[in-house]
Amino acid sequence: MIIHTFALSKSLTQQIDQHFDPLFEIYAAQHQKHHIDLEALFDQTEVYRRFQEQNARHTLFTSGKGALRMISQALTLQDHKISVSYIGESAARDPQFTYFTENTKENILIKNFLAEQLHLTGEINALPHDLRLGALHQDIARARPHLADSTILFINLNALRWADAPAQSGNNPSGLTTEEANQLAYMAGQSHKNQFLVLYGLDHPHRDPHQLTLNSVVQILWYYQYAAATKPQIWPIPEDRRQDFTIESSMMSGNLQFCKDRLTNQWFHKIPFKLAPELAHHQWITTSYDEYQATANEDIPHRILEWYDIA
C-alpha cells in the first residue's frame, strides 16, 4: 500500500486530482490519496518519526516550504539512522535541503546527491555518493545503488528542465527530463528499503497555465507506484533466483560476498562486518556488476568503502 499525500494550496487541489485520479484508477486497491492543508503539514511528523512501524509507504507532494523542516524534526525525535537521496540541480543552493542536512547530522548514515549540475555546484570533483546530471544522461541505471538503499528520496522539482516543470523557481533550460525522473522514481519504488518519496519546489504555479509541472509530478508518482506494486525487488532473493559470488581479497581478513538476482539482474553486497541491530537492514546493500568487478580486481569502490564506515 502506498499513501499519497498532497499538501497544496486550495487552487491546486482540484488540478492535481484531474491528473492523478485517471492514472491511478488501475491501482485503486493499492493506494490511498489524502489532501491536507498546508497549515497541517506538521501533523505528518508521526508518520516520519515512526517509519519503521509503517505497513505502508508514503509519498508527499507539497507547494509549502515546511516539508523538510517537518521531516528533520521527525527524524531527530527517534534513534534510527537512515540513508537519503537528493535529486535537485544544486543541494547547496536549496535552503530547504540545507536546513534538513544541518539538523539531521546525527540521523543520516549516507547522503546521495543525484542530478546536480556542475556549473551550479562549483564542485569540480564528485564524491563517491554523487551522480551528476551528465553521468545520469549517459547511464541512468548507475543511479540504482544510490536510490535502492535510501529510506527517503527527496526530489526538488528544479531537478527537471524548465520546459518540463515551469512552475519551479528559476528558468534553467538544463536538467532531467520527466521521462528520466520517472525512471529514477521507478528504481526507488522497486526498493525494499525505500519508505518515502518527497517532492517539493512547486514555487510558481502561475507560470504554468498548461499544468505541465503537475503532469510531470503525477507521472513520477505513478512510476513509483507501478514499481512498488508490480515490479518490486523481492528481498530476500528467492533461492531459485539467487546466485552467490565469493571474492578472496587481500584487502580484507575474510571473504567478500556478493549475490545477484537472476530474474532482475540486480546485484547486492554484504558488508563484511556485523552491524548493530538497528542497522541490520543495511547488512546487504545494493551494488552493480561494475562494482562487483572492481572489487574482484582488488579495487573496492569508494562508495562501498563509505558503507563499511557505518559499521
From TrEMBL:
Entry-linked InterPro entries: Ureohydrolase_dom_sf
Recorded superkingdom: Bacteria
SUPFAM superfamilies according to UniProt: Arginase/deacetylase
Name the UniProt record assigns to this protein: Uncharacterized protein
Organism: Membranihabitans marinus
